Amino acid sequence: MSRSSRDSGYDRNITIFSPEGRLYQIEYAFKAVKSSGLTSIAVRGESTVCVLTQKKVPDTLVEADSVTRLYKITPKIGCVMTGNLPDAIAQVQRAREEAHDFRFKNGYDIPVHYLAKRMADVNQVYTQHASMRALGCVMMLCSIDDERGAQLFKVDPAGFFCGFKATAAGSKDQEATTWLEKHFKKTPPATADETVQAALLCIQNVLGSDIKASDVEVGVVDGSDAFRTLSADEVEGHLTAIAERD
User: Fold this and answer.
1) Model pTM greater than 0.70?
2) Are 236 and 213 in contact (CB under 8 A)?
């Protein structure tokens, strides 16, 4: 029996499995992430985590500084969002509320692994209720944990989360993952500069061309524990170092 005749009703309800055991609306949420046209990279070094994403300003009249995919959840936890931007902003706001509520109840900052678990739990609930729509975005969280050191987590629309040494999301996530797997068989980058340059080198190889500082956003969290976004001059310095090295 064809897909259109047998399964046509199963992609209209988020809570109903198809006869093949698939939730089509969740698959569509993953496709929404890929169709965003952006690719994001995250790399975890020994004492640094770097998150990077392409930056595309939708219109010449839009103020470039107002367009971002990098967000600070707490002073020590940052994230990069890939996919549907309104959904991403809503998820970031929920993450900030979760972090604030945790600190209010417990008296200390929320650990990044617990925040990733909470956001994954929320996403998973969205797959169970017909009144809710799965979010079409992927969240990659980074922080320096007091006990575990550099931490990197990815939360997907299905409610799955996992820790990573390096990962990618977006339109060319498979190509980026292949590149990262090939270059991270050995030890992780030792310094902050090596971590940032590894992420930049990955996005350049995936896109197949050199990039400018204005083409990407780069966020890092390192020994200072604070998540921050690199300036255009800092990104340009790393790109120059990569060019000189090659």
Assistant:
1) yes
2) yes
